[in-house]
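A quick aside before the break. I want you to see a complete sequence-to-structure record at least once, exactly as it would be stored in a machine-readable document. Don't worry about memorizing anything.
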Amino acid sequence: MFVRVHSGAVVGIDAVPVTVEVDITGGGLGLFLVGLPDSAVKESEQRIRAAFGNSDRRMSGRKIVVNLAPADLRKEGAGFDLPIAVGILAAQSEIRTDLLEGSMLAGELSLDGTVKPVRGVLPLADCARREGLRRIIVPAENAAEAAVVEGIEAIGVRSLREVADYLNGVLTIAPTAAALARTPGQSGLYAEDFADVKGQAHAKRALEIAAAGGHNVLMIGAPGSGKTMLARRLPTILPPLSGEEALETTKIHSVAGKPGAVQGLLVRRPFRAPHHLASRVALIGGGQSPMPGEVSLAHNGILFLDELPEFGRSVLEVLRQPLEEKRITVSRAKYSVEYPANFTLVAAMNPCPCGYYNHPDKECTCAPGAVHRYMGRISGPLLDRIDLHIEVVPVPVGELAADRPAESSAAIRARVVAARAVQAERFRGIGGVHTNAMMNPKMLREHCTLDSASRALLERAMERLSLSARAYDRILKVARTIADLAGEERIAAVHVAEAINYRSLDRESWGR
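That is the input. The structure line, written in tokens, reads:
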């Protein structure tokens, strides 16, 4: 008997349909698996045989041919166990095919017949909806994730026996309801708050600008000055994830198999903080079986690189493409995949090896030229792509002990959301552009026009600081965001002056 079962394979952060074709014929013995399967798929035969035996099922003694179509697409992972097993049962006339025709299946089988969770269920559910299927049958642990997709029923199962009973109409399984996402205004979403930070008004202001315009930030200061504390509170002032952003972000985490995605849509913007020993593949993605890297896991959120100079130079240089293009293309001999990477880079570093260069109280003990060499670990092209350079100065003890209340994240976020609303209206109808940081040169000419005073100020700064053309553009983008926060339609000299003030590392005197 010949049977078709719908399944899917993840490519990048999306899924493509895969048809599992099962044919049982009279000649020969054994199971033959074809259709470019990888090792994990080839090993499914042994898992399926054991699962059959422990589920009171028997595999036919005749020749079983399983084809995974299309045959030119490489199939990876153990998620094909369940559709192959169900296809064999249907070909043996042990499962009805009426419900099977409108269903997509995915899941790994344990030897005792239980169904184990797999990666990438959200893209698979979206693929099932696009293909016009009515339901997706997945492990119970993945059901909340699949239920996020509207227009398709997510059926969570726990064993092969349960799947067979459901498809035969013996067992009724209610579709899993989609979990309701909380909004950032609700308590408990973030444990951190800017109200915890004493002093650092200059740094807080810079981070507010970064959040409002999607600008990259580098904080430089002595150990213990509060750089990490500030960075970890940046997500608390970002606007809430839109439905489209939440779906795309959850897809990436689903493909990567990260916890949290299985609970439905992600409600918090990602905050990724890889260690400085992370490899290029860990940061950018790829590998033998392609997986999203940290830059993609930070999509629509924050990528925090602490102790920036300690990262390998070759590791940092791979950030250039995603910082400019907001996506990353990973090409290898056997595949080429593209992952979204629209993140805000937040980096922190000490000003020198000892950490006390420019410290108000402690003396720097570094040898002459050491500060310059330390800063030289970060290339000029990478610094050019960072919009805001912030000097974080240690807070005096008296200010730390003061009982003055600091501004909360909710108050700052309200101003950020208002500025983002202005940008949303500005870029309405322009695909792929949502914030000032994403403007191209044509948009800069249209939305960042300067009066004579502002232009003269910026020209003087360009000459004195020897700024690059890219730095010029980024100053204009930051000035546009500062004007948006102030509710001003046009950029004024005061906005340009503040934007120039955030290019401290471009000054010739720094580190010399």
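Two observations worth writing down. The two ends are 79 Å apart (CA to CA). The chain is about 35% helix and 15% strand. We'll return to this after the break.
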